[in-house]
Amino acid sequence: MKKLILFCTIVCLGITSCSTSKTDSVANDKAVINTLLDNWHVAAANGDYNGYFGKIAEDGIYIGTDATENWDKQAFSVFSKPYFDRGKAWDFKALERNIYFSKDGKTAWFDELLDTWMKVCRGSGVLEKTGNEWKIKHYVLSMTVPNDATQEVLPLKGKYEDALIEKMKAAKK
């Protein structure tokens, strides 16, 4: 009986330590990702081209606020270079951020509300962990529109996007 109680105690301690270890790992990775994303935004604000693009995976994708902005890392870096060369690209500060993880802990996705020159924007993305390093694989920046302002905003969007919608529909045929 004593052996059974000892065995059960060891099993319970093992399960608890594994559970705590995984919780600690997630909390650590969450802190690392928060720091990475904050530093990424700071790098843009400071015109730190290498600091900014070094955080994006080589096969990373950046989708901007304009419907035509869907870039791979190389194309986005070429587009952005003149902004960074001025010493400041854009200045986004996180107001709120949520981070989630895959079961294996190697993929994370997030959403964030940002304070920007465009007012509140939403960023969302996916990061991948290779070894001990997280890299941004996919990032989407969207301007938010308050629900109460939608009817006011639609005509302005239409002025710029109606032709694009028709062009894209025609290309699908």
* Largest sheet, spatial ordering of strands: 2-1-6-5-4-3
Instruction: Count up the domains.
Output: 1
Q: Which architecture would the CATH scheme give at its second level?
A: Roll
Strand content is 25-35%
Kindly summarize this structure in a few lines.
The chain contains 4 helices and 6 strands, in the order ααββαββββα. The chain has 173 residues and is an alpha+beta fold.
Helices and strands in order:
Elements: H1 2-45, H2 49-53, E1 56-63, E2 70-72, H3 73-85, E3 93-101, E4 107-116, E5 119-130, E6 133-143, H4 150-172
Please tell me about this protein's structure.
The chain starts with a helix and ends with a helix. The chain is α+β, with helices and mostly antiparallel strands. The chain has one domain (23-147): Roll (Nuclear Transport Factor 2, Chain: A). The chain is globular and about 75 Å long. Helix content is 49%, strand content 31%. The longest helix is centred in the N-terminal third of the chain and has 44 residues, at 2-45. It has a six-stranded mixed β-sheet.
